[in-house]
Amino acid sequence: MCGYEWGNGWHGGWGGGGIVMGVLMVLLVVAVIVAIIFAVRYLSGGGSSHHRGGPGPDGMRAEDRLADRFARGEIDEDEFRRRMTLLREHR
User: Fold this and answer.
1) Could you list the mean pLDDT of each consecutive 10-residue stretch along the chain, which spans 91 residues?
2) Number of domains the chain is built from
3) What is the pLDDT at residue 9?
4) Same structural domain for residues 44 and 65?
5) Residue 4 within any structural domain of the chain
6) Among 59, 82, 58, which Cα is nearest to 70's?
7) Residue 41 in contact with residue 34, Cβ under 8 Å?
8) Domain containing 75: what range?
9) pLDDT of amino acid 73
10) Does residue 81 sit in helix, strand or coil?
11) Rounded distance between C-alpha atoms, residue 72 and residue 74, angstroms
């Protein structure tokens, strides 16, 4: 016979490649689930508010931090206006 009998298929139906394919299929399913979770979080706005101009880790917005540095004299007016313009452009 050719090895295609019932119950004796190619190495009992799995063979060496079947186990690898099974593991890869599980990894594919996990990757799809993770991708769906990230997509839902991204589309629902669940990302960091820091990138959207919201408060950073210390509770201050970037514009507030910049105004504070300007008020303390760490940066001059030209630097303040240039950076403020950049912040507003990249919202």
Assistant:
1) 53 66 93 94 68 58 90 92 89 70
2) 2
3) 52
4) no
5) no
6) 82
7) no
8) 53-91
9) 92
10) helix
11) 6
